[in-house]
Amino acid sequence: MRIGLNLLFMIPREVGGTETYARGLLQGLRKIQPAYEFVLFLNRESADWAPSIESGFARVVCPVNAVSRGKRFLYEHFRLRENLKEHRIDLLHSLGYTSPVRLACPTIVTVPDLNFLAFGHLMPLARRLMLKLTVKQSVLRTDKVITISEFSRREILSAYRIPAEKVTVTYLATEREAVQPVSAASARADAGMGWMKEPYMVAFSATYPNKNIPRLLAAYGEAKRRHHIPQRLVLIGHPFPMKDDPAKDLVGSGEIVWTGYVERQTLTEILKRAEFMVFPSFYEGFGLPVLEAMSRGLPVVCSNAASLPEVAGDAAITFDPFSVPDMAEKIAAVALSSSLRSELRKKGEGNLNRFSWEKTAAETVAVYDELLRK
Q1: Comparing C-alpha atoms, which of 49, 59, 39, 38 is closest to residue 10?
Q2: Residue 283 and residue 242 in one domain
Q3: How far apart are CA 208 and CA 69, in angstroms?
């Protein structure tokens, strides 16, 4: 049996979590080596994507650019079927929200979340309408839907009239990273970053409203004023304008630091030296940064919304993402207790055992088996 993996959506280093999912699934498939042949259908931008991971998989580069979304959708729905026939595909798994219509073989689509419904009003109108139409049609027409959390499964079942058994959850994963002590060789990362020598917590900066950065800034300010926590707040990423900056004075005094873009080595050093991570998002299909922090030995303080309770389990201190006072109290509790941070590190290490790309791949292959038996 030949399984086609539809990766026409892939724009390396731009599509974020869907690239992580695709890369991880391929890693898991290589390790478990199921009794199927796999054919990757790629676009021009991804022609050379992750060659070390993809060795052992057949590759078909289609004559279309993913950056031209309209042309990619047209190719996917009207010309990809010719490629599938040519390569004798028995089942097609589309990994990025949309799946071609009217195919002769069984089809699966992965829909990680419904962010275009949750806050799609911030997307360009044409893109939002295209996603609404194509994702709905994909969910209704495909034989199976895979998503990445029970939260997203509930969202999908609430949005579309489909049987509950049609939707399967396969969690994401992250690679464990050995926690290395800070060494003299890392001194280059200190250039212009003197704050790295003093206590700090980290968060990831993003303009998307679900990332909840304005409330995080307000909560940090409250924790600083009421509890005199010693840590700076380091936001990894670029600053962005806010209508009412809730922590303008703290930014000016250096208590809040935006790093701007950082190279991977510098990012590793920043995370290595941090005392804990705060993840305040109120909408996540999975919340992979929580696992990534735990894999680096970072204690986690995160939102109790969407998929995050599933991912964090009992290994994080959680807060109401819409309550600045609650967020401030939880940040202060972790900031002021080294024993609590130590306990969270140990729990985080245990929590990681629930997730692996081999498990993701095995659960995905089980869906293939089910459809092909039918």
Answers
A1: 49
A2: yes
A3: 21
Decide if 179 is inside a domain.
Answer: no
CB atoms within 10 A of CB 7: 25
How many H-runs (helices) and E-runs (strands) does the chain carry?
15, 13
3-state secondary structure of 287: coil
Handedness of CA 270, 276, 282, 287 (dihedral sign): positive
The whole-number pLDDT of residue 184 equals 45
How many folded domains does the chain comprise?
2
Please give the C-alpha separations between residue 17 and each of 42, 72, 111, 171, 290, in angstroms, as whole numbers: 17, 19, 12, 12, 13
Instruction: Report the pLDDT value the prediction gives residue 358, as an integer from 0 to 100.
Output: 97
In DSSP terms, 167 is beta-bridged to: 145
Q: What whole-number distance in Å separates Cα of residue 247 and Cα of residue 221?
A: 6
Which pLDDT score is estimated for 180? Answer: 56
Cα dist from 270 to 181, 183, 258, 316, whole Å: 12, 13, 12, 20
Structural domain contains residue 178: no
Classify each residue of 49-62 as buried b or exposed e, where b means 16 or more C-beta atoms within 10 Å of its C-beta: bbeebbeebebbeb
7 and 100 belong to one structural domain = yes
- Domain extent for 295: 184-354
Confidence (pLDDT) at 186? 53
Which pLDDT belongs to residue 185?
A: 41
Looking at residue 346, its pLDDT comes to 97
Positions of the chain with pLDDT lower than 50, given as ranges = 184-185
